[in-house]
Structures are given as C-alpha cells and as structure tokens.
Amino acid sequence: MAKKRRKEPTFYLLTLGCPKNTFDSEGISEMLLQADYRSTDNPRQADVMIVNTCGFLQAAKDESIGALRELAAVKRKHQLLIAAGCMAQRFGSEVTREVRGLDGLIGTRAWTDIVPFIQKLRANKRPQPLYHLPETGDTPIETVALDRQQVELGRASAYLKISDGCSAPCAFCTIPSFKGLNRSRPREHILAEARRLEAAGVKEIILIAQDTTAYGRDWGELDGLPSLLEQLVEAAPGVNWWRLMYAYPGHASDKLVEVMAAHSPIIPYIDMPLQHGHPDTLKRMRRPHNVDKLLRWIEQYRASMPGAVLRTTFIVGYPGETEAEFQGLLDFMAAVKFDRVGAFTFSPEPDTPAFDLPDQVDPDIQQERWERLMAFQQPISLERNRQMVGQRLDVLVDGAGDGLSIARSYRDAPEIDGYVVVEKELPVGEMVPVLVTGAMEYDLVAMPADQPIMVM
User: Fold this and answer.
1) More confident residue, 61 or 254
2) Backbone dihedral angles phi then psi of residue 244, each to the nearest 5 degrees
3) Do residues 268 and 295 share a domain?
4) Percentage of the chain surpassing pLDDT 90?
5) What's 165's domain CATH number?
6) SS3 state of residue 357
7) What are phi and psi of 335, to 5 degrees?
8) Does one domain contain both 325 and 417?
9) Inside any domain, residue 456
10) Which of 53, 190, 263, 270 could make an SS bond with 85 (beta carbons 3.0 to 4.6 A apart)?
C-alpha cells in the first residue's frame, strides 16, 4: 500500500504599511517557503494567518487592528493567527486585548525566527498568546535569500533594505522607540542580495531604510551611502535602475550627488521627506532647519543631473503651526517646484515629544491646510510633467490590458508616484522605450517609440 503523502502546511500573509514592511514580508514568506510551507491568497485555506502590521500613526494602527479582527472572526480551530511587525512590537499588550483569538506576536526584528516560533505556537498549551518581541536593537538584520520568491512572483522591481531603526531625533516620530537606533546591514550581505536579485531578473532595485543616508554612521562612516551605491552598481551590473528612498536631509552630501551623477544606473530620483519648509516649524519638529543650506543642496542636485526628480512629504497642522508658517511652507514649495509631493495631517502619537506640545492645531484647520497644499501642488506637478512631452523615456511595464499598458519611468517610484499610460499592450516586466505625447497632473501619456506617428 502506497504511503500517504504528508500535506504541506499553508500560510496567508497580509502586509500593511510601508515598503520596509514589504521587504520584511518577503523575508517571512521565503523563510516559510524554505520550510516547505505553501502560500495561499485565501485566509480560510491557510494553516497560519499572519498580518505584518503597521503602528506608525493612529490610522495605520486602526487598520492593523481591523485586519486582525476580521481574520480572527473567520478563524477555525486548527488555524494560527499571528500579528507581526511594528504594531506587534510597539503595542503588544493592546493588540492581545483588542483581538480575541490571537495566537502570537512576533516583533520587527524577530521575523527571521518565524518557523520555530510557529512550532512553539503549535505546542503552546496556554490560553494567552506567545510573544517573540526582542529588545529594540538586540537582533541583527539577517540576510534572507529572496531569489526563489522573486522568480515565482515574476517581479521586475524589488526592495532592498540597507539598514533598520533610526537615530534621528524627530519630535513626532515613534520609530526609534520600537525599531531602535539605526543599525546598518553589513555590506557583504547587501551586495550578495543584490546579486541574487539580479540573477532572478530584477530590473529595478529600490533601496530602503528608515534613513538611507545614515548608512554606515552607526560604525563611524559618515558618508557610507555613496560608496555603497558604487559597490552595488559594480556588483550587479545587470540592474537597470537603482532608486533611492527615505533620504534624511541632514545627511545628504555633495559626495552623494557626485556618485549619482557619475553612474547612469543610479537614476536621478531621490525621495527626501522634508516634513516642512518653515524653519520655525522644523525646529519644533527637531528636524534640520537650515532651509538655505537645503536649497543649495537641491540646486546642486538638479544642476548635476538633467531631469533630476525630487520627491518629498510634508506634515501640515503640526503643533504651533501658524498661518504664516503654513504660508512659508507654500512659498518653499513654490521656490523648489517639487516633482512629487505627499502630505499628511499631524497625528499626535503617545510617547513622543510632540504629543502634548502646546498650541495643538484644530483638526478642521489641519484638513483645510492639507487640501490647500495639495491644490497648490497640482499645477506645479502638471508643469513638471508637461516638460516631458516630446521626450523619449524608458519605462518599466507594470500591467497591460484593453489595448493599454501601465508603466513607470525613472520618475515614478512604485505605489506612491504616477504612471505612464502607453497606448499599446506591452510585455509586462519589460523595459520599453516610449515617446511622451501628453501630460496630466500626476501621470503621463505615451506611445511606443518605434510606433509611427499618425498625421491627421
């Protein structure tokens, strides 16, 4: 009689929050795949349900609790429900109180132990959830082989985390409290991972961290990012685009601009969350507040690379923000003409210096200022996009159907920026040259560069 084959266990993984969480989820998934688990998109079919939570702002916290409750409501007897990531690390006791049926919590730097942790949960006889939440900063960032998963997903883009934690003193931010101080990954781990991604056919690698420009500062290297970028370009020459996210203005250097300008695969795009443009507001935020110095760096950045793109995010309604300070932010935006802007209303987070600052701004005024800021940016974005009409661009195709393709140029980071809508179905995952024929506030319209232009 033939021996009955053992059924492979399955897992369902829901990722909330930022690209740093996406990177960690890919690591969790790969660990489970290597342990002979199978992935499923249906939580009802999973033996293990995992939510990689976000706890950065109250809205993200509410979303995480809601997702866990939804899964707990449909959970069957044999299933495990695990809360992972930032909210599990930061608000562990609150999560267990709010979500009945939760079996375990695993923290932001403990996900490399996901397989033995699940085994512990299976053996757990106690009614309360098990915790695996190391002290912040105690657990090193491990290298995870992502090549198999990248091939299975068929993704042309991938995130590569170069450090974790943050040492910046921002008064509104909770990240150091649960992520710990900045800890850079060893160069050899990052380079090895880049080679694996290149071998898997990845065309765009997006460097992420809480502060990418702080790379190496924890071991005394004050300008480590530029040299890391040079090594990455050499280590993985088949990668078409290297994209830089989450740069801290206080650590942006002349050397970084020089290296970006000298290596064409390092695309002229930088995401630098500035948070505000008025020096008095920035001081209260405990952020770099020498606006003139920042303007000089931006001028150098744009002068060194034709078509250089600058993306930023702002917080409106920070405690003490007067109408004059808000107008100063708009004036700053008018002077710089950012290509991409995101904005948030201030959210008071417990255990941060900004939580109980005097002169809290009324939520209605916050919302009104947010709407004014976004409306103010729209014509600037349209103007920047119109400058691209008539130009040829290489685009990375993200999707196709109904005679159109949705693609991104070097000017567009995935999930947060606009698209290039191409008037033809193109191979998904390929880089294709196009000619830009139209511009909108956030997106471009294009046609394949080799397609003949119809004269009416």
Assistant:
1) 254
2) -110, 120
3) yes
4) 72
5) 3.80.30.20
6) coil
7) -70, -40
8) no
9) no
10) 53
Cα 386 to Cα 108: distance, rounded to the nearest angstrom: 42
Pair of tokens at residue 272: 């630098």
DSSP-derived pairing of the beta strands 392-401 and 266-271: unpaired
Name residue 220's amino acid: G
Assigned token pair, 117 = 């942790």
Q: Are 404 and 422 in contact (CB under 8 A)?
A: yes
CATH number at residue 114: 3.40.50.12160
Tell me the pLDDT band of 175, cut-offs 50, 70 and 90: confident
Closest to 188 in 3D by CA, of 239, 241, 143, 234: 143
Q: Are 300 and 257 in contact (CB under 8 A)?
A: yes
Helices 291-304 and 323-336 cross at an angle (nearest 10°) of 20
Question: What are all long-range contacts of 71-76, with beta carbons under 8 Å and residues at least 24 apart?
Answer: 71/14, 71/43, 72/99, 72/100, 72/101, 72/102, 74/43, 74/44, 75/49, 75/101, 76/44
Q: What residues pair up with 159 in beta bridges, in sequence order?
A: 206
pLDDT of the residue at 273 = 96
β-bridge mates for residue 354, sequence order: none
C-alpha count within 13 angstroms, C-beta hemisphere, residue 305? 24
pLDDT band, very low/low/confident/very high, at 452 (cuts 50, 70, 90): low
- pTM score of the predicted model: 0.78
User: Does the pLDDT value for residue 339 go beyond 90?
Assistant: yes
